[in-house]
Structures
1.
Amino acid sequence: LKSLAASMSHTMLADGSPMPLLDPALLASGTDQGGMSMLANESSQPRLFKATLTAKAVRVPLLKDGPTEFWTYNGSLPGPLIDVMEGDTVEITLHNQLSQPTSIHWHGLPVPPSQDGNPQQAIAPGQKITYRFTLPEGSAGTYWYHPHPHEFTAEQASRGLAGGFIVRAKQDPLAGVPERLLILSDLKLDHMGQIAPNNSDDWMNGREGQFVLTNAQNKPTVHFDAGGRERWRIWNANSARYLRLQLPGSQLALIGTDGGLLEHPITGLTEHVLAPGQRIELIVDAGKRRDQGKLIAAVYARGKMGDVAPDKPLDILTVDFSRVATGQVVSLPARLATIKDLGRPVAQKRVVFSEKMTMTNGQHGMQFLVNGKEYDMHRIDLTSRVDEVELWEIVNQSDMDHPFHLHGTQFQVQSREMDGVVKTESYLAWHDTINLKSGETVRIKTVQHWPGIRMFHCHILEHEAVGMMGQLEVV
Ligand code: C2O
Ligand code: CU
Ligand code: CU
């Protein structure tokens, strides 16, 4: 948190004015990316990971005139990294020291519904709950955790509650490649330097702050590994901001998505769009460069006409390639993983995202709907059967992009359709969050393995909060 304060020292507020209140005493000299804090395992039993996450407010002296209040897990931003192995049993106690109910949702992980922090299962201030689940073989991937209480998810996440969760494979084909973890999260401060409440625009287009932090630091500099090749895991933990990621001067290789490695690397990319909630794994090669690279979030227009809340371009991170030594690049295997096609679906579902203008007391508003309805925690919207593969057709009839997310499983994209043109997905990959452009239809194959209630929703957290969510009951 000290390094967050330091990294904010030369920043501007939204209107372009510098933050004059910053305390120069907080300016630190270190520019290297501070290691993310790790959640320590309190268990001595093999294959059991046991720990406590305390959700609590923490005051960080960002500004001279008074501290900024963040909500954190165990006082760290981002929340401490959970780093476990396939096959491990995870037992985590959440202690709620917030003033609101909360829960922890294990985004993307195959955990039973009773352990997944559903909105119905939030705990009151002062309470504790223990989540317990075993990570199956084949679940290696890049996940995250965040609150999911009814009505407070967006607020709690934007105040700082979110952390990374890595499940490692017993046999990782990239085991020798140095890894870099980049959790990208949005920070919006008001003129007092406090975390800003949402305005009506935020509730409509999604909240975007003045800063996109990398591991809770503002525009840090990282020193590229001397070996010349790194594996980057990147999280889009923003409430609503899409990241069209570019590292000008370098080509990127996509090697993994939300739920783990691809079968083969997809090389030669100049950019990748990461929607809110999604994660990717990339291979970044220094090649011959020895300069200062910039990781950029370029403009991404989130609407059909290109005029719905286009994201501002931002440089997020400086990558210092100057210390790369020559001739020691670790080689990459051509085959990374085997992904089994989920096979022929035996049932179908249709999910339609739409929006509707409203007028209450002369005030314009917007409703965000799933199959024509707003979320109701007492209503079941869809029913599926345990272990039955289904084809879901997800249709975006709204004027803006929405990232669709389904709890409890990893799905496979079959095709994407836009303006009547159907494109079959050309490679297999595991996803739990997939973007739908305005007017787009995406077909996915999915299967649930436990009975119980699962949520599916737009991962623009403000849209989820105002009702763009449904409930699937698995029987
Ligand atoms: Cu990231 Cu309903 O979740
Ligand atoms: Cu989730
Ligand atoms: Cu949305």
2.
Amino acid sequence: YHVRSEKHDCGGALISRCYVATAAHCFKRSKFLSYVVRGGFELGFRDRPEQVREIENVFIHPFYTFGLQEDDIAVIKLKSCFTITEKLQTICLPKSASQFTNGFQCVASGFGETEDGEASQRLKFVWLPLIDNEACSHESVYGSRITNGMQCAGSMAGVADTCRGDSGGPLSCRDPVTGNWHLWGIVSWGESCGDSNKPGVYTRVERYLPWINCVISSNRNCQN
Ligand code: 4AZ
């Protein structure tokens, strides 16, 4: 899913017909009620599966602090819900903290910056292995900047990565038993893009399940 305004451009993931999960930092400088959410595969082109929805409300995690990267998660409530079709579906939330572990290959997707330094006009995706927090907290990587609410993914050798504009979009992992895709991460930050020892850092969605479920069931922001 694609969230766009004049100044900001972020991804998001449909976690139910009426709610989109994205990054809190996407709302840094924006008037979020003017945002529009669309499901589609090309920018500036209304391809067949696309549906456009306006935002009714944005719930930013109460511990998120602008400028910092912790608790970088927000839930968007849509004014009207999406219609589920073959090409427009919801993604499952994580099942448990240990559902996907170090080395598991997941998929990040978005319209973010490519090698040529410009936003992609087409939705792109890349397979990225999960990196455990111990390895990602190594001093040659990100040190103490990695906290429990984060999940690193990518290669320590670099190259494949997410980048500016992919923020808020999904890091999706497929359960090998059920075949269901789960929203394991949300594109959050990283030092540049594709550099060695600087993998992408994602919001670890599993840690926020109580908050997400509380927001969706109460339609109000929640304290944890
Ligand atoms: C960004 O600024 C951003 N390489 C997103 C992802 C990554 C770096 C920066 C990861 O939105």
